[in-house]
From TrEMBL, chain A:
Keyword Hydrolase carried by entry: yes
Tagged with keyword Hydrolase: yes
Domain of life: Eukaryota
Domain UFSP1/2/DUB catalytic as annotated: residue spans: 56-249
Family matches, as InterPro entries: UFSP1/2_DUB_cat
A GO MF term: deUFMylase activity
Family classification: Belongs to the peptidase C78 family.
Lineage summary: Eukaryota, Metazoa, Chordata, Craniata, Vertebrata
Keywords carried by this UniProt record: Hydrolase
Protein name, UniProt field: UFSP1/2/DUB catalytic domain-containing protein
TrEMBL record, chain B:
Role noted for this protein: Ubiquitin-like modifier which can be covalently attached via an isopeptide bond to lysine residues of substrate proteins as a monomer or a lysine-linked polymer. The so-called ufmylation, requires the UFM1-activating E1 enzyme UBA5, the UFM1-conjugating E2 enzyme UFC1, and the UFM1-ligase E3 enzyme UFL1. Ufmylation is involved in various processes, such as ribosome recycling, response to DNA damage, transcription or reticulophagy (also called ER-phagy) induced in response to endoplasmic reticulum stress.
SUPFAM superfamilies: Ubiquitin-like (SSF54236)
Protein name: Ubiquitin-fold modifier 1
Subunit structure: Interacts with UBA5. Interacts with UFC1.
Biological process (GO), any one: protein K69-linked ufmylation
Keyword terms, alphabetized: Isopeptide bond, Ubl conjugation, Ubl conjugation pathway
Amino acid sequence: MAYMEDNSAEGIDWGHKSVLGEKKHRCTERNSEFTGALPENAHIGLPSPAPDIVKCSLISGDCLYFHYGCDGQDDSGWGCGYRTLQTMAWWLCHSWCPPSPKAKCRPPPSLPEIQHALVAMGDKPASFAGSREWIGTFEASLILDYYYNVPCKVVHVRGGGIELNRAAEELHEHFQSQGSPVMMGGDRDNSSKGILGVCSRPEGQGSYLLVMDPHYYGPPLERAALQGLGLVSWKNVGSLDTSSFYNLCLPQTAKT
Amino acid sequence: MSKVTFKITLTSDPRLPYKVLSVPEGTPFTAVLKFAAEEVSGARRYNGIGINPAQTAGNVFLKHGSELRIIPRDRVGGRGVGPR
C-alpha cells in the first residue's frame, strides 16, 4: 500500500493546519494528565451552516479534541487517523454508559498502544509497531472492539454526490440511535475526519457534516480559536471529493 | 468437521458481485477472504462490520452470520488531496 505525502499546495480547504507556521512547538509533557489541556466540546456555539436546515443530528454527551502532537508525540503527517480514534475512545470512556461498568473509564490508548494492539490481534506485522504507518476506519473499528468491546459498523460510500447524500441519511440515523462520534476516511481524500453531527436542508438540497479536523499541531487552543481556524466546522457534503471513496466507522453503542 | 457457508459481496463494485463459499468451520478466515477476494475481483483487502480476520470461519459465522461484505480499506494520514 502506498502512503501519500502532501507536498503540493492543492487540497480541500479544511482549515488551517497550524497557527505556528514552520516551527514545531512542544505541547505538553507526555503523561497521563495531558487530556486536561485539550478543549472540550469544541463544536458548541457554531452557527448553523444554512438558514433553511430542516434536520440536525449531533453526538450525545461530551467530546474532546485530539490532534497532532497533543500528548507530546509528534505524529504530524501520519497520526491523524489515530487522533480521531482517540476522540472516539475518549467519548466511550466519558460520555457512554456501557452495559458492563468494567468496560468504562479505559483512557484512550496512545499511538504506540494502538499499534501494539493491532500487531497483537494479528492485523499487522510486528514491524508495524513503532512505525509511522497510517491506519484507517477498519483499524479504528478493531481497536474500539479490542479495548472497549464496542463493535463498529463500517459503511462504505463508493463516491459521487448521490452516494454521499445517502451517507448523510445514515449519519442522521446513527447520531439519533447511537450518539457516538464517527470516523471518516477515504482513498483519494486521505485526510481523517471526526464527524460530530450532520444537518440537512430540504430534500434534495444537500447536507452538511460537522467535522473535527485532527491535523492541527501546536499548543492547546480555546474553542473560539479552533472554530476560527476551521478545525471544527460545518462542511458541505458537496465539497467532498466525489472521486474518492469514503468509509465511515460507526460505533454501535445503543442499548439493545 | 462441519462446514459453514458464506455469501461474500464486493461492495466497492456497483454491480455487487459475490461469491458463495462453504468451508470447514476450523478454516482460518484469512484463507476464506483471500480466496473470495481473488474470485470476486482483484480486491486485496477485506473489511466487514468490525470483523477481525484473524479467527476461524466458524467463529465468524457464529458472530456475524453468513452474509458478509468486502470493503476496500482507507488509509488516512496527511492532508487530503482533492480537486480544485
